[in-house]
Amino acid sequence: MARYEDTTQYERDVMTSLGYHWRGEGWQRGFDLSDGDMVVEAWVGDRLPERQKELSNITHLWDQKISDINKPISAFDQEDDDIIPFSEKAKNSFRADSDKAIKFSADKENDLTNQISEMQKDIDDLSSKLKNKSQTPLEKASLEAIIAKIKVGKERLDVLRNEAKKRKVHQEYLKLNNENWFLSREKPTSGVKQQQNSNRIKMGMQLDEEKKIQSAIDANMRNTQQYENDLRNKESEVNRLKSLDLSTEEGINRAENEARKNEQSAQHALNDAKDRINQANGEKARAENVGREHERKAAQAEEKRKKHSQLLDDFVRWNSEVDYGKKAWWKEFNAASDLISNLEKERDDALSVMNASRESASRAANRQQQATRDQANAESALNSARKTLADVQAKKAMIAKEKKEAETKAE
Where is the composition biased (Low complexity) (predicted)? Predict the structure, then answer.
């Protein structure tokens, strides 16, 4: 039989705060019902009254230790209705959805792989035709432009194929994640934990595979940009040859004059672009150096400010006006406050210069990028002009040779 004298003060405080009161042999708490009835919780006795048999599952708090009452309940308590294992029907539904998503991505990957193979065959067939030496320069340039265009399309499809592959791997990762979700609702036996660890290892491998595929996608994007630049150059060459009239002496002279003008203009643009690149690089480097220097100054000022702020806090905490002397105390306080304010200003000024320098460096970087693009365009124009001059010279040489042969035959 429990006695009130055997309870601790802590137990009394806890039970009283919960609305319980000691009645004879234990803690009790009453609730009013309709018709003047009352339900008493934590009832103690040989048995419960007939009308309270439905409450027979109530735990007798006085039969437990306070430490047991406060002990957290495991999430995997078999009597906890909130934790219910997944049914096989629910598991199979999730698995079917995952398999469907994996199959969709796998089919896309296979379809794109077949398309890429067909495009590679076209590239190989057209490349073999380039070996035909009887082609005119325009025919050869047109064929090269077609090949370049197919390469661009092939690389773009390769991006889509790797994206589909990445999605398939990610769906496999999600499927494993679902399996661990199912296991989390099971009783945590050693077998369940071992399977969860195995799934986690596989999930890590899937994430690593995703990273590798993403690297391949990044490489595809870079290659696509290169192929697009090559395609533009090939198309420019085709247009140049189409507009080139070398059938008459007048056409040859006109083409030569225009090519020389274009060569001079392109060379000037190229020199200007190189100068702007060098200037932008110098401005960027100087701005970055200034930014780093003032970042260092700001950090030093902030470190000093924190140090003196702590010293001031300690001074205020351990020294009173009475003990230190009112005049001396305020003199010390004001001097420290002024020093802290000056350090704050020094820090803010340095940060302001640092931010301005970074903005200046960013603008210089933009100018450098634009100048680099201008340089590429100028180099392309210069190469085009020089190719035209080479074609003109070759045509002149051929005409001179034919003329000489004709004169020789006439003699």
Answer: 355-378
